[in-house]
Each structure stands twice: as structure tokens, then as C-alpha cells.
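User: Um, what's this?
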Amino acid sequence: MTAGMSFVCGLAADTLVETPDGPMEIRKVVGKQIPVFTRDATGRVRFRLMRDVVAQPAGSVWRVRLENGASFRAVPRQGIFLTTLECVALEDLRPGSLLCAAFFYPAGYRYETSTGEERLSQAGWQVESVEPAGEAELVTLRVLPEECFFVSAGVLLRSA
């Protein structure tokens, strides 16, 4: 993680998070505790309880679009993990940034996409674009002890 950097956890309320039961819209679990996928210190994907899921007033969000076609919206200071496991603010991402993915082929592995295109794995998801996306209802949350969780776009975000 970047020393001295302050991050905020704030997702657009329509964001999908990854649970053992499949993707779930975060606004539907406000006030509840649910298991979500996370990555522990050894790099293993596990599930932990998401807690303190709280609706917040609408605020500014940015949209991140990934090479896999997925996208999500969050506050500009939302922490997001690169493949190096360095945490950066969403607003500091650039096209080409390589994000920590939930599941991926090893770096250098050649694979075929669902459209038949052959690709070389980079062991993460590449950012296609990141830009301001207006305002949205927001939700904050915590996942302990790892302080991170996967959104259904397939990337690892920092929790509060």
C-alpha cells in the first residue's frame, strides 16, 4: 500500500460485489452483513463478512472500464489494488493500469476470449478508461481483517 495515502471506500449503490452466492447489488445489503470474496495476505481468494454497509448521500463518482468489458463506479479516492498489490486511488488510474484480478491466467499464458480472440495474459485486468461519471447514491462498507473485497467487474478494492 502507498504510505501516507488516504483512501475512502465509497461505491455507487448499483455496484455488484462478489459473494459465494453470486453477484449482489450493494444497495440491497445496506444494514446487513454478507460474505464477500477477498484476498488474504498469502494471495489466496477467501470469503469474509462485509460489515457496516451504510447508505450515504449522493456524491461524485468516476467510472472505470476494463479490457474485459466490465465497469464499475466509485468515489475518486476509492482505493484499488494494482497487480503489484500497491493500493492507489481510483482517480490516479490511467488507461493501461493493470489491476489485481479475482481470477486470472498466469502471466504469459495464451488464451482465447469468448469472442475467439487470442490474448496473452498479464495476470490482471487492464484499465481501458477512467473518467468522471456524475453523481450517484453511495454506499460505504468494511471487510475485516483483509480490508479489501472484489467487485463483480473482477477487481480488488480497498474497504474502509
